[in-house]
Amino acid sequence: EMFRKLLDSASAGDNVGVLLRGVKKTDVERGMVLSKPGSIKPHKKFKAELYVLSKDEGGRHTPFFTNYRPQFYFRTSDVTGTVALPEGVEMVMPGD
Description:
single chain, 96 residues, mainly beta, two-stranded antiparallel sheet
């Protein structure tokens, strides 16, 4: 089902609702990925270069430091992460 319409198939990247027999509702949650076993590799870490929006741009108005724990959003899923700043970087200011 996609946007309340029944489908015979779906493609990678489609957001769908599915009926999974033998799977408890408590075992799944919104944002999880349905895939062939062994076809994807989950990751717990990633490196990123980013620009932090300033207050005037609709972003932060205070700096953050190593061990800051923001929410990361991936498609329909959100995960609390921990920021580890590079060596020599003490803090990140809005607008950096």
